[in-house]
Structures are given as C-alpha cells and as structure tokens.
Amino acid sequence: MAVEWREFAEAMAQLARNLLAQESLQGTLDEIATSAVRLVEGCDAAGILAIRKGRAVTLSSCGGQLVEASDRLQGELAEGPCFDLARRATGADGERVFRIADLTEPQPTWPRFATAARDLGIGSMTGVLLYTHDEDFGALNLYSRRPGAFGKDIETAGWLLASHAAVALADARTIDQLEDAMKTRHAIGEAMGILMERHKLSEDDAFAVLRRISQHHNIKLRDVAQRVRDDRDGRDDRDDRDDRDGQ
Questions:
Q1: Are 221 and 214 in contact (CB under 8 A)?
Q2: What is the pairing mode between strands 136-144 and 45-52?
Q3: Mean pLDDT for each 10-residue chunk of the chain (247 residues)?
Q4: CB count, 10 Å around CB of 157?
Q5: How high is the pLDDT of residue 3?
Q6: Is the pTM of this model over 0.85?
C-alpha cells in the first residue's frame, strides 16, 4: 500500500464522508471508481460492472477506456473474473473477491479472456463484490498495467473500500428512489388537476383516466402524467399565439 494501514483507515473514513456527500446514485458510483484509483497503490483504472438480464453493463469507470473495453470483452465472451463475480453474486456460495496477480501467466479459468486482456495491456486485476445483506450492486474491479501489482493485502484493502461503498450505494439508491417517488407523485397530482379543470372530473375520476391510459397503452403512469402536462403547455402556447394574432 502507498500509505500505512492507519493512514488507509483514515482515508476510508474520508471516503465514507465523500460518498455520503454525493447528490445522486451515479455520483456515488463515480466517486467509488475514482477513489479506488486514488487510494490503491498500483491501480491504473477501476470500474463497477453489473449483470443486467445476462448482459455486462459498466455502471462507472475511471482511468480511460480500459475498463469499458474489459467489460465489453467479458460480456462478449461470457467469461472473465469481473463477469463471473457479478453474475454469481446472487448465489449462496458466490465468490466475493478475486485476484489475478499476473495475467502474463496461463489462466485456465478464463483462457480466452486472459489472452485478450493481455492485448488490452492489463497486467493484473483484482475485484470485490459490492453488496449488503439485502442487495448486490455489482463488482468493483481494479486494473493495473503491471503484472504483480496487486498482492494479498490488496484483497483486504479492496474489501474495506467495497464495504464503505456498498453502504453508501444502499443509502444513495434509497434517496434516489424517494426523490423519484416524490417527483412521480407531484407529476401525477398536477396532471390530475389539469384533467379535473379541463373536463370537470372528480379527483377519483381523473386518476382513473390516467390509470386507464397507462394500462391500455402499457405506459408508466408518470409518463402519462407528463404527456398531459406537455399537452397543457402546448395548448397554452397556442392560446398565447392566437391572442397575439387577434390583436
């Protein structure tokens, strides 16, 4: 490590504060990747990989195109340490950490990925699952262009970083969901008001109209509400133009 363990622990405390200070889920993800490169010696790039419907998705990255290229490669091959870690995370016996000390040596577990990874300039890799008791968020993966960059102690450092990160992600997702719910409720309430005024409907009837459109066209209720609001704004603009033209 570039710093002593005590200093690293202090850096972890600062990381926790930085993560909790982020204003969005994406901001939290980006801070995790950036902090990994900043805090872990030998780490040239870092990223967070998740598996969505069997596909590899890069949630965040730091350190150029290396992370995206590696994630894309693992998704195409359906093999690789990051891919397997994220994919098997939901299993009861799923691995929580991996470390490839030297990618120049044969890798029987991921032979095709290892060959292609060397062509990308990856010398060594390590990763740890981002998870809480309730949810898996993906895998935090660290890359070095130098073989042998990540020793055994890196697993402990990565686990500490991932533990802080997972708690922050859980908080950020909750806040994100609450804010989204509030925005949805506001949009629906405004759309109901428009329908009530325009068509002389009761509150229950206005909501029933929105719900019926949502179900019939398979559109989210919030999106239906937004269309009603957009239509109102468009009518207002047309009325303003008509007033000006009539003067």
A1: yes
A2: antiparallel
A3: 62 76 81 88 91 84 92 92 77 68 90 93 90 72 92 74 74 58 73 88 87 84 84 57 47
A4: 24
A5: 46
A6: no
Q: What was the pLDDT predicted at 54?
A: 79
Q: How many domains does the chain have?
A: 2
- Model pLDDT, residue 168: 74
Task: Clarify whether residues 13 and 73 are in a common domain.
Answer: yes
Q: 122-142 b/e with 16+ CB inside 10 Å = b? A: bbbbbbbbbbeeeebbbbbbb
Cα–Cα distance between 81 and 141 in angstroms, integer? 9
Longest dimension (CA), the chain: 82
Residues 81 and 26 in one domain: yes
Q: How many CA atoms lie within 13 A of 43 on its CB side?
A: 28
* Spatial distance between the Cα atoms of 79 and 82, rounded to a whole number of angstroms: 8
Looking at the fold, whether 76 and 137 belong to one and the same domain comes out as: yes
| Owning domain of residue 192 | 178-246
